[in-house]
Amino acid sequence: MLVTATDFKANLGHYLEASQDNEVFITRNGQLFARLIGTQQSKQEAFAALQGVLPSHSSLAEIKEGRMKAHESHI
Predict the structure, then answer these.
(1) Which helix (H) or strand (E) covers residue 15, if one does?
(2) Which end of the chain has fewer CB atoms at under 10 Å, N or C?
(3) Quick check: 27 and 4 in contact, CB under 8 A?
């Protein structure tokens, strides 16, 4: 679902509900600005949505390990 920032602000409750079943893409000045996804989306669904964005050799475990290492290096 694609909405403008103005429409999103005016109908926040509607789009919060809609985000539980669908991704809500928010545009500002004609440019993609944000993506809203509900918490009901599983990790596997979120990972599947990133197909083509992540390197093909990535797995959930590898991504988690990389994030943990990055976090540790900032401590």
Answers:
(1) helix 12-18
(2) C
(3) yes
Residue-level pLDDT at 3:
95
Asked if residue 45 lies in contact with residue 39, where contact means CB atoms within 8 angstroms, the answer is: no
pLDDT in tens, 34-62: 999 887 766 677 777 766 665 666 677 77
The answer to whether 25 touches 3, Cβ cutoff 8 Å, is yes
- 23 touches 37 (CB < 8 A): yes
Given a contact cutoff of 8 angstroms between Cβ atoms, the answer to whether 2 and 19 are in contact is no
Strands lying side by side in the sheet with 2-4: 2-4, 24-28, 31-36
pLDDT at 13 over 90: yes
